[in-house]
């Protein structure tokens, strides 16, 4: 069933079949119900309840909240084309400068960050957190995505490098460090003390924290443009002496990097030591 909202702000309820719902403009509340649904929030600050079924939801412009339900779902912070992060299909990027909240609930969900200050919660089961912008910008401010519940045992960070080098302002801009074709894990990986890193494409630092991404890049050896560094952010150091989150940063030149994601729940050193190459995929 095709359901289209007005431009005045609507309450929209889907059927128990496979629906296509377009919220239109203004602030909408969309409850898709059962079925495998395709949901587009449109403009405005919207709330989407995807419900049971394998759903695809797009946030659109405005700050949105998307709640997936208990099946395997695909959630986009902004208005992008659907894709499978473990196949060769690519996203068609679109600027989404709003601050969105995506919640996967149960199921193996894919949550795609936009270029606002998004908050991603995967929920139960193994999830993929997809990033297309290593340096998202809104005006003159750099933003990063917050992941609230990354589980090293079953979740994955996925970097979209599909449009790298095309010069498109809104294109994906990671460098592909897969083992040969999109959908594979990172080709070189290191986890350990900063001084032991020597040019690996993903470096997880486990012996100390840093006050900036560039300080982390300076502490390792052989870093180059496109490398990803994971480290503790000392700016969030608590009274207990432990940092309360990890940061993912992208190296853009020698001794210089900038953050694109923060992981709130990796707040103990042992959480970082458990990260492996299988936690980092490229498409």
From TrEMBL:
Organism phylogeny: Bacteria, Pseudomonadati, Pseudomonadota, Alphaproteobacteria, Hyphomicrobiales
Protein name: Calcium-binding protein
Cell compartments where the protein resides: Secreted
Biological source species: Rhizobium bangladeshense
Pfam families xref list: HemolysinCabind
InterPro entries to which the protein is assigned, alphabetical: Hemolysin-typ_Ca-bd_CS (IPR018511), Hemolysn_Ca-bd (IPR001343), RTX_toxin/Mannuronan_C5-epim (IPR050557), Serralysin-like_metalloprot_C (IPR011049)
UniProt xrefs under PANTHER family: S-LAYER PROTEIN (PTHR38340)
PROSITE patterns, A to Z: HEMOLYSIN_CALCIUM
Key words, A-Z: Secreted
């Amino acid at each position: 069933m095709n359901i289209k909202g007005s431009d005045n702000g609507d309450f929209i309820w889907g059927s128990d079949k496979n629906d296509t719902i377009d919220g239109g403009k203004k602030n909408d509340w969309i409850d898709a119900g059962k079925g495998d649904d395709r949901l587009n929030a449109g403009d405005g600050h919207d709330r989407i309840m995807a419900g049971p079924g394998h759903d695809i939801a797009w946030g659109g412009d405005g700050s949105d909240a998307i709640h997936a339900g208990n099946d395997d779902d695909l959630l986009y912070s902004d208005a992008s084309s659907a894709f499978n992060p473990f196949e060769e299909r690519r996203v068609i990027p679109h600027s989404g400068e709003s601050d969105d909240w995506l919640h996967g609930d149960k199921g193996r969900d894919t949550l795609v960050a936009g270029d606002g200050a998004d908050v991603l919660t995967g929920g139960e089961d193994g999830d993929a957190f997809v990033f297309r912008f290593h340096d998202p910008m809104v005006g003159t401010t750099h933003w990063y995505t917050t992941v609230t519940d990354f589980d090293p045992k079953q979740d994955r960070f996925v970097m979209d490098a599909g449009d790298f080098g095309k010069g498109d302002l809104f294109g994906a801009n990671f460098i592909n460090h897969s083992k040969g074709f999109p959908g594979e894990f990172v080709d070189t990986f290191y986890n350990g003390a900063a001084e032991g890193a020597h040019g690996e494409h993903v470096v997880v630092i486990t012996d100390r924290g840093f006050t900036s991404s560039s300080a982390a890049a300076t502490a390792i050896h052989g870093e180059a443009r496109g490398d990803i560094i994971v480290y503790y952010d000392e700016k969030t150091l608590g009274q207990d002496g432990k940092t309360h989150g990890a940061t993912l940063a992208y190296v853009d030149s020698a001794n210089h990097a900038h953050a694109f994601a923060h992981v709130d729940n990796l707040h103990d050193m042992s959480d970082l030591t458990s990260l492996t190459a299988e936690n980092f995929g490229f498409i």
